[in-house]
Design goal:
The chain is mostly helical and about 240 residues long. It is about 80% helix and about 0% strand. It has a domain at about 75-240. It has helices spanning about 20-50, 55-70, 75-85, 90-115, 120-135, 135-165, 165-180, 185, 195-215, 215-240.
Length: about 240
């Protein structure tokens, strides 16, 4: 051995090997316009006919997406779950550390956005309004369904695919696409809402980073679940106090 006896070895950097198969990648990236465009239009048509309400439409969109991801990407999810189990303590540390960083960023960006605009985040308000009427279905959507769909689309699909070609492009496109996704449907009606893209940049960056650093999409899925679960509780509690 080249190392001195008793000298600590440097921590081994985890190689990023998480990657969708070719057909899986095509399926996931092809599903993005379906999730963003076709399914919302289809469920709007169902709402107009009185078949579902707003909550049912949103739950339905994410339920279809979850079944799609679990069905077509099962092998990828199974492989990445094994990677997750190889280093559980690192994953827990990453989750807790990233959540602390996110809270600090949210406080900073919250103060900036409150100074710029008094409207409030439209996506948060929409989810809160639905939760106050039907908390159970909305919580199931936000905590369990949405993280699986969105992490497969934006982390495994966009970030994970680009990461194997160019790391900087993967971060830039992965972060911006996820941030714009949460605001665009409101901003095309009210352009002032584009400013709230800024609020999603820190968490989007952290989701990409935790996926990369742990080499498992399940880390970012669980982190996303943690964020949405706590955020939903806080937002609904705050609204009920008003």
């Amino acid at each position: 051995m080249n190392e001195e006896k008793g000298s600590p070895l440097p921590p081994r950097k985890i190689e990023f090997t998480s990657r969708l198969g070719r057909m899986e990648s095509i399926a996931v990236l092809s599903y993005l316009p379906v999730h963003v465009g076709f399914l919302p239009l289809a469920f709007v048509a169902l709402m107009q006919k009185g078949i579902v309400d707003d909550t049912g439409a949103n739950v339905g969109i994410y339920l279809v997406g979850t079944l799609f991801m679990l069905g077509l990407c099962f092998k990828f999810l199974r492989r990445d779950f094994d990677a997750l189990c190889e280093r559980p303590f690192q994953v827990i540390a990453e989750l807790l550390g990233s959540y602390g960083v996110m809270l600090c960023c949210n406080m900073l960006f919250g103060m900036i956005l409150n100074f710029i605009s008094s409207e409030g985040n439209p996506n948060n308000q929409a989810v809160t309004d639905m939760a106050l009427i039907s908390y159970g279905p909305v919580a199931a959507m936000a905590v369990y369904l949405a993280p699986i769909v969105e992490e497969m689309l934006f982390r495994a699909g966009i970030f994970g695919t680009l990461r194997h070609y160019n790391r900087i492009s993967a971060y830039v496109i992965g972060v911006l696409s996820f941030s714009v996704y949460h605001v665009w449907s409101f901003a095309i009606i009210e352009p002032s809402y584009w400013i709230y893209v800024l609020q999603y940049i820190p968490v989007s960056f952290l989701l990409c980073r935790i996926y990369e650093s742990t080499n498992s999409i399940w880390s970012s899925i669980f982190f996303h679940m943690l964020i949405n679960g706590i955020s939903l509780k806080v937002l609904t509690a705050a609204q009920q106090l008003l």
